[in-house]
Amino acid sequence: MSAAEAANELSVYQSMAARFDVAAAKLQLDDGLTQYLRSPNREIIVHIPVAMDNRDLRVFDGYRVQHSFARGPCKGGVRYAPNVTLDEIRGLAAEMTWKCAVVNIPFGGAKGGIVCDPVQLSHGELERITRRYTAEILDYIGPERDVPAPDMNTNEQTMAWIMDTYSMHMRHTVTASVTGKPVDLGGSQGRREATGRGCMISIDEALKRFSWKRQETRVIVQGFGNVGSEAARLMHEEGYKIIGVADVGGGVFNTHGVQIPALLEYAKENGTVQGFPGSDSIGAQEILEQECEVLLPAATESVISSKNAHNIKARILAEGANSPTTPPADAILFDRGVFVIPDILANAGGVTVSYFEWVQDRQGYFWTELVVNDRLKNIMVAAFDEVAHYAEKHKVNNRIAAYMLAINRVAFSVKLRGIYA
Ligand code: NAD
Fold it and tell me: Is the sign of the CA dihedral 277, 279, 281, 282 positive or negative?
């Protein structure tokens, strides 16, 4: 593989576009509509001046890409990382459109990011970066326009800062301007766990197809942040056997099962899972290649590529992270008979409960956690069944089926709105 081909394989936008093209061709969409749905609606680049703690001025690059407004306001996370690129944000924004359509909620997709290394930044610096980023994109966000949420290295606190900055400019509190907020500021019960819970619900549905029991199902989780740790905790509680967990620095492995409650405590104290007593050390990439029934990559993109897909031994791949698998790896996994629950289905629990949060904020009436979890389950199970039905009907793999289902829904909305007039 040439260097250019390798770079292309790792491009999040190119990965999305390759899958989109296959699905759009199967749906026989016309060329103009294909081009329209493949392109983002708006791309915003900002350069954010921020006073650092030592009074130096630094400028950070930030992005917000809004892919589609066809079915409602845009919705998508904001991530902070040193390697954030416009290509990545563009690809993830489009994926959000397809994800919202797969679970049939009335949003289009967006994504945002700031090029920064949160590990090197103080609490105060992060707050100033977040507030200035919000101010720079203020005209383009809001409950009816585009609603940010947490993603890699952002959290409830980040959302509270965004909501506060937005509200200061609007001269009144606008809780529905972000989701993934603290519950005390209009956040939803169950939002923190929602992405991990959604992963578990979709894995439960896959297990039914294999007639497997949770107790006999070995699971490996890569990533121990919001998605990975909540998925591991919930799955452990429900009887799954979690045999390996990794974070960015490395992982821990125990064929008899890792004690997840103790690991959560350990990670909280030590900032990493590494060194957890009673388990073997293992590399963060190496862990993906171990024997298990379910592999849950819940860290970052492109970790399963043409380089390692041949070595994946899991029977079910549930994509907690966005875009963890590249298109060349898709083909290899399909040949190997791996049952893939694609990201736009597996991790859609987060945006689904974000939708519930937005609804609750707009109503000013809040639901119990039981109601949230029940409604989440109904949506996830229905979406899983629809994707599986599409895959069987059109004789395609689950990822292409999910894309077809989603693109068909968005294309239908575009046509109904009369874009051709
Ligand atoms: P997070 O920042 O809370 O956690 C990320 C975790 O991944 C950390 O444990 C980190 O150490 C680990 N990690 C990072 N790079 C790694 C690597 N190369 N190898 C192994 N571990 C690595 O982020 P999060 O919110 O849990 O998001 C994780 C993924 O899930 C991202 O792809 C995100 O886009 C996606 N996602 C998140 C949500 C959500 O609600 N938070 C919803 C849908 C999808």
Answer: negative
Which pLDDT does position 3 carry in this prediction? 75
Tell me the residue ranges of DSSP E strands in 52-167.
57-66, 74-81, 108-115, 146-150
Tell me if 223 sits within 8 A of 321, measured CB to CB. yes
Quote the strand ranges of 7-55, DSSP E: 42-51
**What would the pLDDT profile of 268-316 be if each residue is shown by its tens digit?**
999 999 999 999 999 999 999 999 999 999 999 999 999 999 999 999 9
- List beta partners, residue 77: 149
Mutate-to-test residue for ligand 1 from 99, 202, 227, highest number of ligand atoms within 8 A of CB? 227
Measured from CB, residues less than 6 Å from any atom of ligand 1 are 150-153, 195, 222-228, 246-248, 284, 298-300, 320-322, 347, 350
- Determine contact, residues 240/274, Cβ cutoff 8 Å: no
User: What is the chain's alpha carbon radius of gyration, rounded to the nearest angstrom?
Assistant: 20
Ranges of residues in the chain with a pLDDT under 70 are: 420-421
Backbone φ and ψ of 10, nearest 5°: -90, -5
Q: Tell how strand 57-66 and strand 108-115 pair up.
A: antiparallel
Instruction: Please calculate the CA angle 225-230-234 and round it to the nearest 5 degrees.
Output: 155
| Residue ID of nearest Cα to ligand 1 atom 28 | 299
Per the CB < 8 A criterion, the answer to whether 279 and 258 are in contact is yes
The rounded distance, in Å, linking the Cα atoms of 415 and 420 is 7
Residue indicated by tokens 């326009």 = 145
pLDDT value of residue 2: 77
| Mutation pick for ligand 1 pocket among 83, 151, 323, 347 (CB with most ligand atoms within 8 Å) | 151
Residue 420: its pLDDT value, please?
Answer: 66
CA dihedral over 102, 403, 347, 381, signed as positive or negative:
positive
Atom of ligand 1 nearest to the CA of 354: 40
